[in-house]
Amino acid sequence: MKDEGGTIGDAFRFMTEIGIIAQLSGNAMEKALPDGMTMAQFGVLNHLARLGGGWSPLRLANAMQVTKGAMTHTIRYLSEKGHVAVGPDARDGRAKLVTITPKGLAAREAAVAAMAPEIDALVKAVSPELIAQTIPALEKVRRYLDERRA
Questions:
Q1: What is the CATH number of the domain that holds 21?
Q2: Where are the transmembrane segments (predicted)?
Q3: Domain extent for 140
Q4: Which of 1, 10, 47, 131 stands 20 to 30 A from 106 (CA)?
């Protein structure tokens, strides 16, 4: 791979920047989250709030790109807090489904509100226009990567 300044090099820099941004933004957001909530817990609540419905632990684990064991731990914590409900799948009595509760929706909203000052500072520093212009490109990259994951 000898394309340091060409297309492959640019694409590598692009992916490197995304990785660094993910790390920095994740750390900044996690510091702002209320009640010791982790990004993993917020991610599950946000996912369920956005997409709704009941999700199996395995489907959630796949969506979050974590092991089923890690997801089981996260679901257990969220369930103990009353943020999610775990019940039987009506179509398959052996399977479980995870749904967000009203308390979970409120916790997600509190987390979004807690992160708002950090996000507002980013918008002011970068510009609302640049952020809005960048979203379609990021969505395209996300869709591509999502379609290619195993």
A1: 1.10.10.10
A2: none
A3: 7-148
A4: 131
